[in-house]
From TrEMBL:
GO terms for molecular function: S-adenosyl-L-methionine binding; sequence-specific DNA binding; site-specific DNA-methyltransferase (adenine-specific) activity. Its EC number is 2.1.1.72. Belongs to the N(4)/N(6)-methyltransferase family. This is Site-specific DNA-methyltransferase (adenine-specific). It is an enzyme of class 2 (transferase). Keywords: Methyltransferase, S-adenosyl-L-methionine, Transferase. S-adenosyl-L-methionine binds at W19, K23, D64, D192. It catalyses: a 2'-deoxyadenosine in DNA + S-adenosyl-L-methionine = an N(6)-methyl-2'-deoxyadenosine in DNA + S-adenosyl-L-homocysteine + H(+). The keyword S-adenosyl-L-methionine applies. The keyword Metal-binding does not apply. Pfam families: MethyltransfD12 (PF02086). The lineage of its organism: Bacteria, Pseudomonadati, Pseudomonadota, Betaproteobacteria, Burkholderiales. GO terms for biological process: DNA restriction-modification system; methylation; mismatch repair. InterPro entries: Ade_MeTrfase_dom_2 (IPR023095), DNA_methylase_N6_adenine_CS (IPR002052), M_m6A_EcoRV (IPR012263), MeTrfase_D12 (IPR012327), SAM-dependent_MTases_sf (IPR029063).
Length: 282
């Protein structure tokens, strides 16, 4: 436990999206290691579990390289009721088939109006294979139909909870390095990048066409050290693997078991070990 840790929400708030690497089950490991501050910066916001379940920050600066994710969050923050009204259509029984899923995916890739596209993105997230978000080299969303055993419903309560918390948030589509470099004294930075390969098997890194290679992992670690020298704490999640210890040399490293319920391959879901590297923790 860090001195003056940021408070964790008394009752956990669930993200309304399924997301690879989501942190809902690890909040008790991560949040106590974050110090209190005026603003929390998350350059890889993903499903938003940490954002939703921290208290004490006046503001949140949340970014992601996925433009559709950021667009969805902005729509929910600014037009929650309108969004729910449009999204309800896609959760009607007539959309519960492979054929309709493919139709929605095709329409989504045609880049229609913002409100409809945000609702389509939520539908694709819920009905796509294993909760993946993946694009081909042309930038087209290409996740196949997931044929869910339990038919997903519209997570209206979770959407409204997100919208309320999002009134203190700014959502930015951009590169993680720009968001991290924008940090100022009083900020706290939490990073949940695409993970390194585990020592025993490869990780999923296909959120976008470019991926996230070792050069970008090193860039993030170097930025964390720079910020720590300026008195700005940075915490980074990753797999507990040899490469991570080399990357995060000098950080305070904590390890804990994690269970993955969303993964690129059904067979890879299960128990793994993760770490949290905290720079500037003293």
């Amino acid at each position: 436990m860090r001195n003056h840790p940021v408070p964790q929400a008394a009752k956990a708030t669930r993200p309304f999206l399924k997301w690879v690497g989501g942190k809902s089950r690890l909040l008790s490991n991560i949040i106590p290691e974050l110090p209190a501050g005026q603003r929390l910066i998350e350059p890889f916001v993903g499903g938003g579990a940490v954002f939703l379940n921290t208290e004490g920050f006046e503001q949140y600066f949340l970014g992601d390289s996925n433009k559709h994710l950021v667009e969805l969050y902005r729509v929910v923050a600014e037009q929650p009721q309108e969004f729910i009204a449009v999204a309800l259509e896609f959760f009607d029984e007539q959309y519960r088939s492979r054929e309709r899923y493919v139709d929605v995916r095709r329409a989504f890739n045609s880049e229609g109006d913002v409100l409809t596209r945000a609702a389509q993105f939520l539908y694709l997230n819920k009905f796509g294979f294993n909760g993946l978000c993946r694009y081909n080299r042309s930038g087209q969303f290409n996740v196949p139909y997931g044929n869910p055993v339990r038919v997903p419903g519209l997570p209206e309560e979770e959407i409204l909870s997100f919208a309320r918390k999002a009134q203190r948030a700014t959502f930015v589509h951009g590169d993680f390095a720009d968001l991290v470099r924008s940090a100022q004294p009083g900020d706290v930075v939490y990073c949940d990048p695409p993970y390194l390969d585990r020592d025993d098997s490869p990780s999923f890194r296909g959120y976008g066409a470019a991926g996230f290679g070792m050069d970008r992992q090193r860039e993030l670690a170097d930025l964390a050290r720079e910020l720590a020298q300026r008195g700005i704490p940075v915490a980074i999640s990753n797999h507990d693997c040899v490469a991570a210890y080399e990357l995060y040399e000098g950080a305070n490293i904590l390890t804990f078991p994690a269970r993955r319920s969303v993964s690129a391959a059904a067979g890879s879901r299960g128990n793994v070990k993760e770490l949290l590297a905290v720079f500037g923790s003293q």
